[in-house]
Design goal:
Number of domains: 2
Shape: elongated
Low-confidence stretches: 43-55
Helix content: 25-40%
Strand order of the largest sheet: 1-2-3-4
Radius of gyration: 35 Å
Strand content: 25-35%
Order of helices and strands: HHHHHHEEHEEEEEEEEHEEEHE
Number of helices: 9
Structural class: alpha+beta
Length: 303
C-alpha cells in the first residue's frame, strides 16, 4: 500500500493530467455528437420543402424525372376520368376528352358510351397509372376483386392516355397533326390533310382527286409495298392496305374521295418521317382489269 501511495505521489501531476484529458475528450465527443444530431435535424426540416420524386414519377421510356407537381396534376386528371367511368357518369368522362379525340374516335356521347364506357366499364374496375414519356401515361385497367371475386387479372385493358392541359386523349390515340400538303401528277392530286397518331401506328387522312377520264386504282394488287412512308434514314414503313375495302382503292373518273391509310409507324418515330409515297397508282383501272396491265403513276409528298 505504501508503495502505491509513493508511486501516486511521485506521478500525481501525470495522473491528474491524464484524467483531465479523458474528461475533456468525453465532453468534446458528446458535444460533437449533439451538434451532428442538430445538423441532421436541420437538413431533414429543409428537405420537407423540397419536391420529392418517387420511382413512379420516372418516365418509363426516357428515364427522365417528372416533377411532383406535374405528375400529381396529370395523374389526378386521369384518375378523375377513370372514376367517372367507374361510377358510370359517362357524360362527365366524355367532357374530359380533347376535341381531337372526339373528332377522330368518339364523335358523339352515344358512340363513347357504347364503344368505350359500357364495354370497358361494364363493372367497376381497378387501374394502375404509370408515367411513360413526355405527357403520355400507360394505364392498365383490371378487374376489381370485390366485383369479380377473382384474384386473377386475365381480363384487363392496357391503354395509353396523353394529357393536353386538363383534357385527355384515350384508346392509344395521342395527337393529331393538321396538314395541307399536295402533289399533282398526271391529273391525279393527293392532298394530305392530317396525321392521326396512335401509340403503335399512324393513320394518314387524305383527299384524292382524279381529274382523268379513266378510273384509277391506288395500288396494283401485286405490289402492296409500293405505298409507304420513308424516314430520314430511308427506312420504309409500308401501308396496311389490307384494311382498305376494294371500293376505297378505286377512284372514278372526275371523282374526289377521302381515304385514310394506316401505317406501322409508332408515335415515337413520326417526327422522323420525311415523305409519303405512292409508287404504283394504276392510271387506267378499266384497262388494268381487262388486260392486267396499265401505266403507273408515282407521287411523292415531302412531309
Amino acid at each position: 500500500m505504501n508503495k502505491l501511495k509513493r508511486i501516486f505521489n511521485q506521478n500525481r501531476k501525470i495522473i491528474f493530467s491524464v484524467i483531465i484529458i479523458l474528461i475533456v475528450s468525453f465532453v468534446l465527443l458528446r458535444l460533437l455528437n449533439h451538434l451532428a444530431k442538430v445538423q441532421n435535424e436541420e437538413n431533414m426540416n429543409n428537405n420537407v420543402n423540397q419536391p420529392i420524386t418517387y420511382n413512379r414519377d420516372y418516365e418509363i421510356i426516357s428515364g427522365e424525372r417528372k416533377d411532383t407537381d406535374t405528375y400529381n396534376k396529370e395523374h389526378s386528371v386521369i384518375e378523375n376520368f377513370l372514376e367517372y367511368c367507374n361510377s358510370k357518369e359517362f357524360e362527365k368522362a366524355y367532357d374530359m376528352l380533347t376535341q381531337e379525340c372526339k373528332d377522330v374516335i368518339y364523335p358523339s356521347l352515344e358512340t363513347f358510351i357504347s364503344e368505350y364506357g359500357e364495354k370497358v366499364f361494364s363493372i367497376k374496375r381497378d387501374y394502375n397509372i404509370q408515367a411513360w414519356t413526355s405527357n403520355i401515361y400507360r394505364v392498365k385497367i383490371t378487374d376489381n376483386l370485390l366485383e369479380t371475386g377473382s384474384t386473377g387479372n386475365k381480363n384487363y385493358v392496357e391503354d395509353y392516355f396523353s394529357i393536353i392541359g386538363n383534357k385527355l386523349n384515350i384508346n392509344s390515340f395521342l395527337d393529331t397533326i393538321k396538314m395541307n400538303k399536295s402533289k399533282e401528277q398526271a391529273n391525279v392530286t393527293i392532298t394530305i390533310e392530317q396525321v392521326n397518331m396512335y401509340m403503335d401506328y399512324s393513320i394518314i387522312k387524305m383527299n384524292i382527286s382524279n381529274k382523268r377520264d379513266t378510273s384509277i386504282m391506288l395500288n396494283s394488287e401485286d405490289y402492296a409495298d409500293n405505298v409507304y412512308l420513308k424516314d430520314d434514314k430511308d427506312l420504309k414503313f409500308v401501308a396496311m392496305l389490307h384494311e382498305l375495302s376494294q371500293d376505297e382503292f378505286i377512284i372514278g373518273a372526275g371523282e374526289n374521295k377521302q381515304v385514310s391509310i394506316k401505317f406501322d409507324v409508332p408515335y415515337s418515330k413520326i417526327n422522323d418521317i420525311e415523305s409519303f409515297n405512292m409508287d404504283n397508282i394504276i392510271a387506267n383501272y378499266e384497262q388494268y382489269k381487262e388486260l392486267g396491265d396499265s401505266r403507273a403513276i408515282q407521287i411523292t409528298i415531302p412531309l
